[in-house]
Task: inverse folding
């Protein structure tokens, strides 16, 4: 359930995910999100028409407000990056924070019609924007990606992307291209990135990934043939790692971390 043009009850406490300068607002020295009534958050009142309700969490209504480049200018607040917030919050917050972030991003990047250039209007009863001039309507963009853990005996193929910081190695991932099935995307991406062929694909699970609007579709796969040769573009290093000698890997709240754990548990099967 995502709603625009929302109504607040006086003094009822809500969860507010407030975005300021592309970061999330929080109280200094607190790790959680803002949980207050609308009345208390006076600095947000000028954004009243832009508040979007993105769901419920722990019996509280959850709203997102995007302040754009503005800041509250109040000493008790600071901002944190989306990534650091997701790392700090309990993992069950991941889905609602991701949804809020992607909703704000959608509204920020669809102010004008991509077809005729007119200003877009919020539809209100559904999360969409509409052009009254040419009737073009846009919905939030979701980009499917495959992500795959490849096993060979008691080894797993992990790679370091050019954007991976801190020496982390992860599973391979890539965007699905137009006209391609998820399975075709797995075979193509793996071969493009590390020159290896895989077999016995098994669907694992999916995860919305708000960097910026991916839907990660996870697979487990077995090695089929080929020697690792990285593309040097997206992937700078890739190796077969023994299960008992892994490098730094992603946290388990991410589907990459879950795929790695599932591959390790498959040892005895
Ligand atoms: Zn238009």
Result:
């Amino acid at each position: 359930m995502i709603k625009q043009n929302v109504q607040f009850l006086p003094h009822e406490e809500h969860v507010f995910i407030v975005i300021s300068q592309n970061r999330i607002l929080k109280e200094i020295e607190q790790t959680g999100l803002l949980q207050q009534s609308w009345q208390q958050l006076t600095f947000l009142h000028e954004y009243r028409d832009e508040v979007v309700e993105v769901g419920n969490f722990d019996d509280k209504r959850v709203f997102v407000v995007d302040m754009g480049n503005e800041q509250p200018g109040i000493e008790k607040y600071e901002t944190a990056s989306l990534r650091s917030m997701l790392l700090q919050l309990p993992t069950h917050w991941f889905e609602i924070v991701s949804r809020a972030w992607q909703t704000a991003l959608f509204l920020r990047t669809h102010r004008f019609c991509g077809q005729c250039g007119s200003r877009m209007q919020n539809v209100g009863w559904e999360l969409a924007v509409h052009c009254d001039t040419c009737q073009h309507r846009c919905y939030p963009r979701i980009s499917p990606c495959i992500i795959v853990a490849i096993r060979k005996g008691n080894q797993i193929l992990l790679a370091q992307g050019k954007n991976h910081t801190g020496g982390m190695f992860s599973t391979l991932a890539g965007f699905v291209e137009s006209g391609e099935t998820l399975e075709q995307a797995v075979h193509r991406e793996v071969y493009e990135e590390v020159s290896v062929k895989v077999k016995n694909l098994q669907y694992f699970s999916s995860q919305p990934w708000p960097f910026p609007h991916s839907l990660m579709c996870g697979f487990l796969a077995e090695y089929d043939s080929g020697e690792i040769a990285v593309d040097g573009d997206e992937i700078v290093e890739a190796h077969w790692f023994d299960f008992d000698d892994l490098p730094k890997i992603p946290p388990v709240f991410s589907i990459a971390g879950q795929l790695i754990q599932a591959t390790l548990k498959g040892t005895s099967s």
